[in-house]
């Protein structure tokens, strides 16, 4: 499934601190490396989405052990049959969990830039931007490119016309109120929205960091 939380700017350090027992020491260290409070909050929330997804879909309550591939893509060292990917932006966080390969990206809306759009958008997408909400189309395309790059672990290409979508993949994009959300996966993933009020109860079902 593809989980997300929006309006993360309403979370503060105090609210996040109450959830830290359910975050791994590794993730806490990463979160604390961010200078901005909002980035720390979103780093914690995206990890909690992973844990909630693992609980709901696989009944896993234990703290996940995360390792990294040579190019930086994370994976579960103790459950290589499960794939996941995390993303966060200024207004939201997302996590995809699946038994097939997956890449996810979330992007808050940015202004349409013609010079960049000409490099990354197809003729059909440029026409869509011209006749519709250009900022939303531009952001959605960028988000989709990012999710494709995270699916393969190779990063994005800046020329859509030369880029080919990864084999064996499905691409899903959502233009939501505060951001665009895209996932590239081997299997279709249902979209699940969680809210702040749910997190404390959901986390109580998880084993805390020892």
Structure description:
The chain has 210 residues and is an alpha+beta fold. It has a single domain, classed as 4'-phosphopantetheinyl transferase domain (Ribosomal Protein L22, Chain A). Helix content is 36%, strand content 22%. The longest helix is centred in the N-terminal third of the chain and has 22 residues, at 37-58. The chain starts with a strand and ends in a 7-residue tail after the last helix.
Level-1 CATH class name = Alpha Beta
Pick out the low-confidence regions: none
CATH architecture: Alpha-Beta Complex
Strand order of the largest sheet: 4-5-1-9
**Number of beta strands:** 9
Output mean pLDDT.
90
By CATH, the topology is: Ribosomal Protein L22, Chain A
Q: Determine the N-to-C terminus distance.
A: 28 Å
Find the CATH superfamily: 4'-phosphopantetheinyl transferase domain
Largest sheet, strands/sense/barrel: 4 strands, mixed
């Amino acid at each position: 499934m593809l989980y997300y939380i929006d309006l993360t700017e309403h979370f503060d350090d105090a609210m996040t601190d109450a959830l830290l027992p359910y975050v791994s020491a590794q993730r806490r260290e990463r979160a604390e490396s961010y200078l901005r409070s909002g980035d720390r909050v979103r780093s914690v929330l995206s990890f909690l989405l992973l844990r909630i997804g693992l609980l709901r879909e696989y009944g896993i309550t234990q703290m996940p052990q995360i390792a990294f591939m040579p190019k930086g893509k994370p994976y579960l060292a103790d459950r290589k049959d499960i794939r996941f990917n995390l993303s966060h932006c200024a207004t939201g966080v997302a996590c995809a969990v699946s038994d097939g390969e997956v890449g996810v990206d979330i992007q808050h809306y940015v202004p349409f830039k013609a010079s960049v759009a000409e490099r990354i958008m197809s003729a059909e997408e440029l026409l869509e931007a011209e006749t519709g909400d250009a900022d939303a189309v531009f952001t959605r395309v960028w988000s989709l490119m990012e999710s494709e790059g995270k699916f393969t672990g190779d990063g994005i290409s800046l020329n859509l016309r030369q880029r080919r979508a990864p084999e064996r993949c499905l691409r899903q994009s959502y233009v939501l109120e505060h951001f665009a959300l895209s996932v590239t996966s081997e299997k279709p993933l249902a979209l699940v929205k969680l809210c702040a009020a749910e997190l404390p109860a959901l986390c109580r079902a998880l084993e805390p960091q020892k």
